[in-house]
Amino acid sequence: MVTTVEKIEIDPEIFKTISKIAKNENTTEKQLINDVLKKEFANVKKNNSPDFFDLVGKFTADKPFNAVEDLKKMRNGEL
Q1: Is the entire prediction scored with pTM above 0.70?
Q2: I need a labelling partner for 14 at 20 to 30 A (CA). Which of 28, 42, 55, 75 fits?
Q3: Residue 12: how many CA atoms within 13 Å on its side-chain side?
Q4: Residue 53: CB atoms within 10 Å
Q5: Domain range spanning residue 17?
């Protein structure tokens, strides 16, 4: 694990909440913040960046088409 030292400003009320949660969960504020950030970044990546192989086979077309030709038509305003 790479450790970097950065200063961030956290709203005092939010930090109080973080401290209470950390105390209830028997952990540190630092560990709690890291865990929450990891979880949220994983959700963002999962929700916004589907892997190509996750998409294969999920969509079907009624009839065959040429993606290159259709893209050219779209760019020219024909579709």
Answers
A1: no
A2: 42
A3: 0
A4: 7
A5: 12-75
